[in-house]
């Protein structure tokens, strides 16, 4: 895949969860990856604490789902409470999800990162380089040359593509250019992570305390851990709030016992989106591309979705199955999803971060009334289908996450993705054509689909379709007649060719 003058196909800068997932997904596709990080070891303290069902599905693709369950707990109920304890809104985890996994998980990030790095180290096409800082990068028509400072001195790395997963202050984003869109939400919060010794009693649900005297978040973390977040009030300083005595005073009213402080930090919760995610052979993902307040628990999730979207597209381009124009669909697809997650989080944050007592009383009354009327607590958390990008727009289900049916008992649960492989997949009621490069062809009566056949047929019936073409990232390219789907898929991988219109009822087998 690579000429000798290239050190790798893709250089991933930043080895947090997003960079690790991207590098692993690429290496599993036979893409030669170098993943570097400026730190010599993974950050040892908690940061993100929640991931959702779709992220567990991506971990499943990497063969890591059961290991991730070992460092996580099932998502509990999420309550918004008034200062007097009344429940203003209760969000229950969904009983069923499109991914075939639980509604969400509360986890310990250092343990999760250990699992990801171990997987990456086991992949022959991946190389990890720690303690190496990116200093400069230059791209040309064929690739990107990165200058890095390593423990042994300054070195150059030559790659066909470079992806910056290098965090909120991303140097790669600066190289891409374009600036940031600012949602003008900027609130300082003290974040406190604790270990919970035996005998301590912390809440077993996630809580947003909407108290104008001190908005507070109290949530589960990984097993044996918990987190509080306290909004800073006007006039309070970071230095004063970081004092252990202040932290214990803030936790004290929760009456949970002598917890052990593991980490404390003051963050500014804000919403930002990079205006430009790609410049030729250089791309950004995760916090380098977007940042969100934590209220919807979608910060790390959004970055890992970036990785899953980008990995299969880079793989297709590098093996010659797609033109570089396919990479234009990355931001086109991901940015609307990211913005919906940020806007949801900011909406939740504005509910929580009310300091005016009269305004808080009006908010409480409105939320209690909405709850009594049975109105939805929040807008749907599932983002809208892709409106543009690598999809057959207009066909039923296009741009949605394709469901993963499961079968069997929990101890021996079968999951359909494990039968599909890593390629795109055409699932049809009947298909008489020949093989197509890069697409697995499955009849609904295929042995591999037997445990899941009723669910697949139900999806096809619901969408009035003869077939569905599912992308490698498990999003629906389109539905309709098999031949039209396959021709449309090829045209979308090479966008210079005209993309055929949706033909759900056409004679295209």
Percentage beta strand: 25-35%
Cα gyration radius (Å)? 24 Å
Main β-sheet description: 8 strands, mixed
Average pLDDT over all residues: 93
Structural class: alpha+beta
- By DSSP (H or I, 4+ residues per run), the number of helices equals 13
- Second rung of CATH, namely the architecture of the domain at 8-73 and 103-181 and 273-349: 3-Layer(bba) Sandwich
Shape call: globular
**Name of the CATH class of the domain at 8-73 and 103-181 and 273-349:** Alpha Beta
Please describe the topology of this protein.
Elements (H helix, E strand, L loop, with lengths): L7 E6 L3 H12 L4 E5 L12 E3 H9 L3 H6 L1 E3 L3 E5 L4 E5 L12 E4 L1 H14 L3 E5 L2 E7 L4 E7 L2 E12 L6 H6 L3 E16 L10 E5 L5 E5 L4 E7 L6 H4 L2 H8 L8 E15 L3 E2 L2 E3 L5 E2 L7 H20 L9 H25 L4 H17 L32 E2 L6 E2 L1 H4 L3 E5 L10 E5 L9 H10 L4 E4 L5 E5 L1 H12 L16
Parallel strand pairs: 1-2, 1-11, 2-8, 5-13, 11-18, 22-23
Antiparallel strand pairs: 3-7, 4-7, 5-6, 9-10, 10-11, 12-15, 12-16, 13-14, 14-15, 16-19, 17-18, 20-21, 22-24, 24-25
Polypeptide structure, described:
The protein is α+β, with helices and mostly antiparallel strands. Among the domains are: 8-73 and 103-181 and 273-349, FAD/NAD(P)-binding domain (3-Layer(bba) Sandwich); 406-493, Glutaredoxin (3-Layer(aba) Sandwich), CATH 3.40.30. The protein has helices at residues 17-28, 53-61, 65-70, 109-122, 171-176, 238-241, 244-251, 299-318, 328-352, 357-373, 417-420, 453-462, 482-493, and strands at 8-13, 33-37, 50-52, 72-74, 78-82, 87-91, 104-107, 126-130, 133-139, 144-150, 153-164, 180-195, 206-210, 216-220, 225-231, 260-274, 278-279, 282-284, 290-291, 406-407, 414-415, 424-428, 439-443, 467-470, 476-480. The strands form five sheets. Strands 1, 2, 8, 9, 10, 11, 17 and 18 form an eight-stranded mixed sheet that branches. It has an eight-stranded mixed sheet with strand order 6-5-13-14-15-12-16-19, with helices on both faces. Strand 10 (144-150) and strand 11 (153-164) form a beta hairpin. The chain is globular and about 70 Å long. The model is unreliable at 497-509 (pLDDT under 50).
């Amino acid at each position: 895949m690579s000429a000798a003058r290239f050190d790798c196909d893709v250089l991933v800068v930043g080895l947090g969860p997003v960079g690790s997932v991207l590098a692993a997904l690429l290496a599993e596709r036979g893409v030669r990856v170098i993943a570097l990080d400026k730190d010599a070891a993974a950050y040892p303290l908690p940061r993100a604490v929640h991931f959702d069902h779709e992220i567990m599905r991506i971990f499943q693709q990497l063969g890591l789902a059961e290991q991730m369950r070992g460092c996580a707990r099932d998502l509990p109920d999420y309550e918004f409470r008034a200062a007097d304890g009344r429940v203003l809104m209760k969000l229950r985890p969904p009983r069923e999800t499109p991914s075939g996994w639980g509604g969400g998980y509360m986890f310990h990030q250092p343990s999760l990162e250990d699992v990801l790095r171990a997987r990456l180290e086991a992949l022959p096409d991946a190389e990890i380089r720690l303690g190496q800082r990116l200093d400069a990068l230059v791209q040309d028509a064929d690739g990107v040359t990165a200058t890095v400072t390593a423990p042994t001195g300054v070195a150059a790395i030559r790659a066909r593509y470079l992806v910056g997963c290098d965090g909120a202050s991303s140097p790669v984003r600066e190289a891409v250019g374009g600036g940031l869109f600012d949602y003008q939400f900027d609130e300082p919060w003290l974040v406190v992570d604790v270990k919970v010794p035996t005998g301590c009693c912390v809440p077993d649900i996630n809580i947003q305390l909407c108290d104008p005297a001190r908005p507070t978040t109290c949530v589960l973390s990984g097993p044996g851990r918990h987190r509080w977040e306290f909004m800073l009030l006007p006039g309070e300083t970071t230095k004063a709030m970081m004092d252990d005595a202040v932290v214990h005073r803030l936790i004290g009213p929760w009456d949970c016992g002598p917890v052990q402080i593991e980490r404390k930090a003051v963050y500014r919760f804000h919403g930002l989106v990079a205006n430009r995610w790609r410049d030729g052979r250089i791309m950004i993902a995760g916090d380098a591309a977007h940042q969100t307040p934590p209220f919807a628990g979608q910060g790390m999730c959004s970055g890992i979705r970036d990785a899953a979207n980008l990995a299969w597209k880079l793989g297709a381009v590098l093996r010659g199955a797609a033109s570089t124009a396919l990479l234009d669909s990355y931001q086109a697809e991901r940015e609307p999803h990211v913005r919906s997650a940020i806007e949801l989080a900011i909406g939740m944050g504005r509910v929580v971060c009310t300091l005016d007592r009269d305004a808080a009383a009006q908010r409480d009354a409105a939320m209690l009334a909405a709850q009594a009327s049975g109105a939805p607590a929040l807008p749907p958390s599932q983002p809208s289908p892709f409106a543009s990008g690598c999809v057959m727009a207009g066909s039923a289900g296009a741009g949605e996450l394709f469901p993963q049916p499961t079968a069997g008992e929990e101890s021996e649960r079968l999951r359909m993705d494990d039968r599909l492989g890593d390629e795109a997949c055409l699932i049809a009621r009947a298909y008489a054509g020949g093989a197509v490069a890069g697409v697995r062809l499955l009849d609904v009566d295929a042995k591999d689909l037997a445990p899941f056949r009723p669910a697949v047929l139900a999806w096809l019936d619901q969408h009035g379709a003869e077939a569905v073409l599912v992308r490698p990232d498990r999003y629906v390219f389109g539905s309709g007649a098999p031949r039209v789907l396959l021709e449309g898929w090829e045209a979308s991988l090479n966008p210079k060719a005209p993309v055929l219109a949706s033909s759900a009822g056409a004679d295209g087998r």
